[in-house]
Design a protein that fits this description.
Blueprint lengths: L9 H12 L3 H14 L4 E7 L5 E6 L6 H7 L26 H7 L2 E7 L6 E7 L2 E8 L4 E7 L6 H6 L3 H18 L4 E6 L2 E6 L4 H9 L3 H4 E7 L4 E7 L11 E5 L2 E3 L2 H10 L12 E6 L5 E3 L8 E3 L2 H18 L48 H12 L14 H6 L7 E4 L3 E6 L2 E6 H19 L4 E11 L2 H17 L2 E5 L2 E8 L7 H14 L8 H13 L9 H12 L14 E5 H7 L2
Parallel strand pairs: 1-7, 11-13
Antiparallel strand pairs: 1-2, 2-6, 3-4, 3-6, 4-5, 7-8, 9-10, 10-13, 11-12, 14-15, 16-17, 17-18, 18-22, 19-21, 20-21
Bound molecules: adenosine-5'-diphosphate (ADP) and magnesium ion.
Length: 597
């Protein structure tokens, strides 16, 4: 038998490696921007078309490459940044694996122009799928321009896997934010389809943050600073009263590298404790300078995690620095510590008169089709049998029937009462039922919103006065993505540049809550880039039901309680909330009796 093991050709190996480094256009953007920074550029331009699917170009005025180096740069494990393994522990550059350019060139058409200041002529190099198709001298300014065209042209699966332009653009903007925030001393321009999304001159950190996030950001920031032997901590936190419903503005940088650290995040959340209501998130821009020897940057190319040697010390330091910052600006006394958003009377319920539940039969509903992989179908089926047998058992705990009802055989709905302003207690046959009111209502609203969106049976009420809203860049993108579904729900609005004017709302949405709802929906959407496997309509229904469902702490009268229970059991799924939380628990009569011994 002949030998069967062979080394993979380079271009195949590169293509495989590329899968790890380059997942989407945003990964290319990150690598190219970081290379420009490593090349000591002072001015960087990012130009993209169609969310990077057609072209991603980065132009820098950095050190450039010689004609030999530029050829080398596209080889795997070709890097000018480290020479030996030990160099890994004193890294001052972003890149060091020497893999990015080789990976990008394996799965796209790449055109590079580069010139060092000492060279008269520039080099132009074209590579397609790891093959050099053209190399020549050219005329170009000092620095490097790399254009990546037709990303994933030879990896159909990847290309098909890409999300809508809006989603991909948001990923790119996220990466851009991270790089631009880490380097306020570099000027950035970002163009998409010929329009300028960002133009950020070299500036102090505070100005950079304001230039990126715009509007009133300046007045929202509180400085944080602490200098110790362990670390230099600098940056800003967002005043608690401006805390947002999404985690958008949370940034940690260690030695000018964006990182994700659940550990440090916990620390900041802890420092904000009691200052912001439940469901809101603190905003922060925290910059740590530490000795590179005391950290371990995960070598994985796409991971942004990090390990600190002096973790406990750092935690205490950062926490006190943030608390100090918050205290110094005396933001604390202006807050009502006892206010809990979850105690607010939910909008939409308050003004709503009880409605009779309607029964709708969905002919397409198949109970054996598992729509939600996490839902417990066997449980929900046993639940259904429990519920349907209710009417045939007059002995059932708590459901007394009047003689008339018995004669006419009219089933009476079970008794209900509210417990701890949080649960609705009811009984069914030989079971006690404890229902979480918030989750139950989320489920009811979620299904009704989904139905409205898909049925196109919207009902709109015109507002007396249009409500204007000014949107941030990211919100605009998110809005455009969800606009169709919002309209299907009954919202009527127009977007002009960054001004959104709301002229009509669905019936269930009261005028004074419109702003909160739209902002909440946009916040939810910016939050869920990772969960974009769900449809826009589904996410919209989720965010709306979260915002509008009866909150814990709301007192409900008996009619409202009954309607909620009836509505819940009219749902397709009764066991789990749209966020996969258990809606109710049951306690069997037998169990109760056993414990009565
Ligand atoms: P790494 O950044 O990990 O070294 P890359 O594949 O990203 O690997 O880049 C390979 C090499 O190409 C870099 O080490 C650098 O020497 C050179 N290079 C890449 N981009 C630029 C640029 N914009 N300007 C100058 N040199 C560059
Ligand atoms: Mg690199």
């Amino acid at each position: 038998m002949p030998d069967i093991i062979a080394l993979l050709p380079d271009h195949v190996a590169n293509q495989i490696a590329a899968g790890e480094v380059i997942q989407r256009p945003a990964s290319v953007v990150k690598e190219l921007l970081e290379n420009a920074i490593d090349a000591k550029a002072k001015n960087i331009q990012l130009i993209i078309k169609d969310a990077g699917k057609t072209i991603i170009q980065v132009i820098d005025d950095g050190v450039g490459m010689s004609s030999t180096d530029v050829r080398m740069a596209f080889e795997r494990h070709a890097t000018s940044k480290i020479k030996k393994a030990n160099d890994l522990f004193s890294l001052s550059t972003k890149g060091f694996r020497g893999e990015a350019l080789a990976s990008i060139a394996a799965i796209a058409h790449v055109e590079t122009h580069t010139r060092r200041s000492e060279d008269e002529m520039a080099t132009c190099l074209k590579i397609e799928g790891s093959k050099v198709t053209h190399q020549d001298v050219s005329v170009a300014p000092k620095g490097t321009s790399i254009a990546v065209k037709n990303l994933f042209y030879n990896v159909t699966a990847r290309r098909n896997f890409l999300k809508s332009n809006n989603v991909e653009l948001r990923h790119i903007i996220d990466e851009f934010h991270r790089v631009a925030l880490a380097h306020p001393d570099i000027s950035f321009v970002f163009l998409q389809n010929g329009t300028e999304l960002f133009s950020l001159p070299k500036a102090k950190l505070r100005t950079r943050i304001v230039n990126i996030f715009g509007g009133k950001t300046n007045e929202k920031l509180v400085p944080v600073k602490e200098e110790t032997s362990v670390a230099l901590i600098e940056g800003f936190v967002v005043k608690p009263e401006y805390a947002r419903r999404n985690r958008g503005q949370q940034f940690f940088f260690v030695n000018q590298r964006f990182i994700k650290s659940p550990f440090l995040h916990h620390c900041i959340t802890n420092a904000f404790e009691g200052l912001i209501p439940k469901g809101y998130h603190p905003g922060y821009f925290i910059y740590l300078q530490v000795d590179p020897k005391t950290i371990d940057i995960n070598i994985h190319p796409t991971k942004t995690e990090i390990k600190f040697q002096e973790e406990q010390n750092l935690y205490a330091l950062l926490r006190s620095a943030v608390k100090h910052g918050l205290g110094m600006f005396q933001v604390s006394p202006t807050l009502d510590f006892n206010r809990d958003a979850s105690m607010d009377i939910p909008h939409g319920f308050k003004d709503k008169s009880p409605v009779l539940p309607t029964i709708e039969v969905d002919p397409n509903f198949n109970p054996f089709k598992n729509e939600n992989p996490n839902s417990n179908q066997s449980n929900s089926k046993s639940w259904e049998s429990l519920y349907s047998s209710l009417h045939t058992d007059p002995q059932s705990l708590g459901s007394e029937t009047t003689p008339e009802q018995e004669l006419l055989n009219i089933p009476e709905s079970p008794k209900v009462f509210q417990l701890f302003s949080k649960f609705i207690v009811s009984s069914m046959r030989s079971h006690l039922l404890i229902i979480n009111q918030n989750r139950a209502h989320q489920r009811v609203l979620y299904e009704s919103f989904l139905k409205t969106i898909s049925s196109q049976k919207k009902s709109t009420q015109k507002l007396l006065l249009p409500i204007p809203l000014v949107l941030e860049k990211e919100q605009i993108i998110v809005f455009q993505e969800a606009q169709e579904e919002l309209e299907a729900m009954g919202f009527e609005m127009t977007l002009n540049k960054n001004k959104l004017t709301i002229v009509g709302t669905p019936k269930f949405c009261s005028e004074k809550d419109v702003q909160k709802i739209i902002e909440g929906v946009l916040a939810f959407e910016t939050e869920t880039t990772e969960a974009d496997s769900f449809s826009v309509g589904d996410r919209l229904a989720k965010s709306m039901c979260q915002l509008l469902a009866i909150k814990t702490g709301t007192t409900l009268n008996v009619t409202e309680q009954k309607h909620l229970v009836d509505d819940l059991f009219g749902c397709k799924e009764t066991m789990l909330s749209p966020f996969n939380r258990q809606i109710f628990i049951t306690l069997e009569k037998r169990e109760i009796e056993k414990r009565m011994n």
